[in-house]
Batch of 2 targets.
Target 1
Amino acid sequence: MTEGKIKKLLIANRGEIAVRIIRAARDLGIATVQVHSDADTESRAVRMADETVNIGPPAAAKSYLNVESILKAARDSGADAIHPGYGFLAENAEFADAVADAGLIFVGPSGDTIRLMGDKAAARAEAKKANVPTVPGSDGVIGDMDAAARLAEEIGFPVMIKASAGGGGRGIRIANDGEEFRTLAPQASSEAKAAFGDGGIYIEKVIERARHIEVQVLGDGEDAVHFFERECSLQRRRQKVWEEAPSIALGERVREELCAAAVALTKAVNYKGAGTIEFLYDDETGEFYFIEMNTRIQVEHPVTEMICGVDLVADMIAIAGGGKLRVNQSQVTRSGHAIEVRLNAEDPANNFMPFPGVVGELLAPDGPGVRFDHMLYPGYAVPPFYDSLLGKLIVWAEDRDKALMRLKRALDELQIEGLPTTAPLFQALLESDDVRASKVHTRWLEPWLAENPDLIRQKGGSET
Ligand code: ADP
Ligand code: ADP
Ligand code: MG
């Protein structure tokens, strides 16, 4: 599939996704350059890569977000392409442009596509144009607070105030009435300005008890295909903690509609690369609503890889190198059920407090149907400066019940000494009848956590 344009790939990211990208590059016969901060000189990705370049101090603003440093590392090492991973510069249109202007390949869509679809308010407009249902809300970013407050009344409270440039669950507020709205909206705007460099906000009706269902897509600029859906309804602070594919909430007809809508939107913007179209799905009415597109590889991509038998990271690199889609839609098939859980360096028995530390003994689960994508090794000191994601444990089996059994087996095998992780949360969730029956929605987990404070402790939370 590769047309061989990419010979050396620079990875402008860290952690487990950097490890994942190095593996995909190796499978394609592409050399790797791993950039890193002063805090990551001993990271697993640094140990694995063919070459490494120090790009600055621990603070992300001075290293992983430092465009000049990253471009210089690419020039000095002779890399011809840059993979941004997720987070950091992955959805930064100016970065994608700067990479292209430097004569290098950006592994992702063009800066213009990111501006169109990575900006959440703009993407809503594109979705509407492509006749994909969106959540009732404002047309584009709100300029005038009075008009916005009137619109919020019309939509009906509670409403969500969202940063157009937000991501990772950040930049979202809920207003329950007009008064709250008038206080929260300006606050949300100034926070978004500080956090994302863009104060644009928009509003959406709150869809109660919805499921988060998203569709994986891949486009080569001309054609696009989907790889079915993932369900990510188990969330804490609007961040996913458990993802699976397929969603057992979807009947075949809705699945087809949802995937067709995602492909239509992908084609409408001549999308090139890997992307995800996120929806909220209301079980009771059978309605789905577009919420956003992530114009990058996502944390939870492995569940799709497990059910479809594909390598999405290799495919996105190959497409960036000038390759075309390897498959047409009818060649994309799925089988079985996959579940991913996110292992964070956090103490679930202590309000998920981040807990960086040194990894002691490590027993990684494996065996049939188990995949563990992570950044750990015994003796590794987890730095305190970044996202707390250590890795993802993914299982596959013929059906969901068997996948749940396998997840339990893998979690029982897993031993990470030296620091608490979110593993006990998943041990506890596996005993919930609602989780076992998948009777969940995006606001299910937080009340469950509040009601079951001891369950996680019993599963070994807080023990190090
Ligand atoms: P996914 O669906 O892949 O989980 P998320 O939106 O949860 O996507 O983000 C993936 C990662 O990138 C997380 O670690 C998150 O913290 C980070 N991230 C995403 N968008 C942003 C952003 N705009 N600013 C800062 N971090 C972000
Ligand atoms: P981010 O860019 O941070 O990922 P999203 O717009 O994708 O933000 O929303 C993150 C999560 O917030 C969703 O998965 C869902 O749980 C919740 N959410 C977002 N929009 C709505 C809405 N209109 N109604 C109810 N919940 C929502
Ligand atoms: Mg999202």
Target 2
Amino acid sequence: MSRAQTKPDRMAWIKGPNAPCNVEPERPDRAWRLILLGAPGVGKGTQADLLVERLGACHLSTGDVFRAAKCIPECNRSPAMAGALDYMKRGELVPDHVVLQIIKERIGCLRCRGGFILDGFPRTVGQAEVLQMFLRAYDIIPDAVINYTLPTLEVIGRLSGRLTCGNCKAVFHATTAPPKKAGVCDHCGGVLAQREDDRPEAIGVRLEAYHKSTSPLIDYYNKLNLLISVDASGTPDDVFRRTIEALRTSTRGGHRLAAAGA
Ligand code: AMP
């Protein structure tokens, strides 16, 4: 299994279909298509970055699309996007019709020869059903749906201590992975801050939304025979090792890794 040569810039995903995109996979037949599930704070984004580095697909996070939209001046935001940002700030799920509109505009990223690692989408059974419909229409079967598991208390600990760089988006933790200099990113010198939706009042809302609306997806993908579960405790490297092992033992992922000589 070779490492990806160039990290995809995801511009078409983040900015919309009119943005240029640098995805040119060397082996389109080997493109990976994974869906990551798990409670907020479980480490899906970190694992997605590691998987991108190793497997070479694009990290497609709906949360990143909304966070990028926050940087657009208010007067240039569509009413739907402005509404979505209010939901996000409170820790609530953005309504399905808004999320699905965003996905529809970016359908090229799901059909892309470079593959995808979906993080934060789907988050409801309604979203998952529409995604299945899109994928079926293009004859795409995901390689696996990886469900990251962690006890709720640990999830709360991870979310409440998380610090994110406003510039390069690197993630630190106030106690378990602190930056060398308080408040400053080790990688780019940017300012570290707590995400608005990592504040205590939003964390409870997000976890409730996860249990009510997102956790039924575990059953949904289990029935489709796509689900693999991975224990998300320990360091990012521990979790990544478990992820690759789980992919190796899964029906579709195992064939893929074996074919790549890994
Ligand atoms: P994340 O970075 O994935 O934790 O997403 C941050 C926030 O964006 C969530 O708490 C929601 O408010 C919103 N969001 C992201 N993806 C979705 C989705 N698929 N459905 C509904 N809301 C979403």
